Amino acid sequence: MTESATSPIKNHKSDESTSQSLFDKLTDELLIKTLIRLPLKPLNLCKSISTRFRSLLSTSYFINSYINHHHFNNSFALYYQTKPTFHNIIDPSLMTIDIAFESPVFDSPGFSLSFLSNSDQQKQETLQYLASNNGLVLCCAVLRRPIVYFVCNPLTKQFVTLPPPPSNVKTVYIGFVCDPRCLCDDEFTTSFKVVRVEVVRCEFPRQLSATLKLEIFCSVSGRWTEEYFMSSSGSDHELFHAWNYRCPSAVVCNGLLHWGTLSNFGVFTYDTSNGECRTIELPQEVRKPVWTFKHCLGEYSGRLRYANFSWDDSNYRVWELKDGGGGWLLLHKVHLDEMKSTVEGINKECMALLSPHPLNPDVVFFWCRSSCRIVEYDMGNKVLQLPRFIRDVKIISHLSPMFFPFVLPPWPTAVPVIQQQEQN
């Protein structure tokens, strides 16, 4: 029978119970009206009651009903992580994770990742947020040796611990990509990959060569593999940068990982499906950039975006990468003097670019050190204002905090079970 959002599912009895229960006497329609009122964590537990429950909760009719009841529709939030410093030395034990949001669905201790640090296995852990994609979050236990990574769903509070990577280097660029509908063994499941990128410099006669070492974890195989990439450019000494503490994680766009601070020539891209690496040149208006907090990468509707502030003409610009990587399209350009502000204490010359808004094509987020606040700028009406966050967000930090856009998918992404394999 074809599933429909307008017609209930045919009633049937549980095939796992020898005696009738109250649930057996209920129609599927009544069960749906009851179950859609549950929070997600107990709802997931209901799948283990019987085959009937598991089947019912997996239908598109139930999923659509649940989404409509709870108003889950691509809600957006910003995770941010501050790093208090003393004499320019970062103390990992002082790092804190918090979240700014507009939708009340995020108003839960779970979205602060506290369920990880309060669990029996990770008690008293100091966690670092690293990346997110399609509803799952990658984080690590900062003080553990060897390095321990976790992949979790903050909404359902499910998590899995990854085996340790081949090397114990912590100063690496991170990439995380999740496919919530991966076909594996004739069944649809969630799969993800974690990519660690280390810049390895080797001295050769009369030149300095830079090689990227990539360590890739695949949830399907349950193991880490290693790859190496060396540029074919004649200017190897300028291609790869040393590790940048503020921008270690990649922006995911169409399943590809993009780093905006890894290459001096442009945006470094890695395709996890075929292992291909390439560099996308920056827009022509952006000359050899100074890697400050005046640029950022983002994604909107499957398109890669690049925002930049030019010291030459005091203009903010936002570009979008054309289909197939065929150059950049300039979307917005605004002079510093044109930026009207509705926020007190804003010093427009001391703002750090954070991220383009993933759900609003005209909005770019900033962090203003003078007011210690997240602010948003609407390129359309040229107004700098406070975001419509439910609670006040004030960030006091010596260094610009790290920010991670988080888009809640319409339906929660399951955390896959990992069968850990022996490493070669």
What this model shows, in words?
With 424 residues, the protein is mainly beta. Helices cover 9% and strands 39% of the residues. The protein has helices spanning 28-35, 40-45, 51-56, 60-70, 114-117, 236-239; strands at residues 76-82, 85-86, 89-90, 96-101, 127-133, 136-141, 148-153, 158-161, 173-184, 187-204, 207-218, 223-230, 251-253, 256-259, 266-271, 277-281, 295-300, 303-310, 315-321, 328-335, 340-341, 351-356, 363-368, 373-378, 383-385, 402-407. The radius of gyration is 23 Å and the shape is globular. 31% of the residues are buried. Residues 114-385 form the F-box protein At3g26010-like beta-propeller domain. InterPro entries: At3g26010-like, Beta-prop_At3g26010-like, F-box-assoc_interact_dom, F-box-like_dom_sf.
Rounded to the nearest angstrom, the distance between the terminal CA atoms is 47 Å
Low-confidence stretches: 1-19, 85-89
Spatial sequence of strands, sheet with the most strands: 21-25-24-23-22
Q: So what's the overall shape?
A: globular
Under the CATH scheme, the architecture of the largest domain is 6 Propeller
How helix-rich are the residues, as a percent range? under 10%
User: Please, how many helices?
Assistant: 6
And the CATH topology of the largest domain?
Answer: Neuraminidase
Would you report the number of β strands?
A: 26
Strand content: 35-45%
What composes the largest sheet? 5 strands, mixed
Just give the CATH class of the largest domain. Mainly Beta
Radius of gyration: 23 Å
Count up the domains. Answer: 2
Q: What value does the average pLDDT take?
A: 79
Pfam families: b-prop_At3g26010-like (PF24750)
InterPro entries: At3g26010-like (IPR055290), Beta-prop_At3g26010-like (IPR056592), F-box-assoc_interact_dom (IPR017451), F-box-like_dom_sf (IPR036047)
Protein name: F-box associated interaction domain, F-box-like domain superfamily
Domain F-box protein At3g26010-like beta-propeller: 114-385
